[in-house]
Design brief:
The protein is built from five helices and two strands. With 124 residues, the protein is mainly alpha-helical. The chain has a two-stranded antiparallel sheet with strand order 1-2. The longest helix has 29 residues.
Length: 124
């Protein structure tokens, strides 16, 4: 079932979201100071590309730099990404086929808000 949902997700939303995240990650990697944000964006791109069958695990011992990075991320970029996922999920929830995609989109909101110190792992 995950494979079918991932293929539908890839065609309808995943490819375009992943390209956007990846391009933003490349832009962030231009300056040395913003490289951690670029890496976080590329990690998000991988998860957004193929989300079903994977989950996000937060590392509670990530440290104060992760906390500061998350606060800066939230203020500068995170809230826009979270609103985009919320709005896209609402649009996907209109159809019966889109409901699982909407739920996956809404599950990405916390990761869009707090990406530092998060790891994407397989559910198995």
């Amino acid at each position: 079932m995950s494979l079918i949902l991932n293929v539908i997700w890839f065609v309808l939303a995943g490819l375009w979201l992943a390209i956007g995240y990846f391009v933003a990650g490349l832009v962030f990697c231009v300056f040395i100071v913003t490289i951690p944000f670029g890496i976080a964006n590329m990690r998000l791109a991988g998860y957004v590309l193929w989300p079903f069958g994977r989950t996000v695990v937060y590392d509670r011992s990530a440290g104060c730099f992760s906390l500061v990075g998350n606060i800066l991320w939230l203020i500068l970029f995170g809230w826009e990404l979270a609103l985009a996922h919320l709005f896209t999920g609402l649009l996907q929830a209109i159809t019966v086929i889109g409901i699982p995609l909407a739920i996956a989109n809404w599950k990405m909101i916390p990761l869009a808000l707090w990406p530092m110190g998060a790891r994407v792992v397989d559910r198995a």
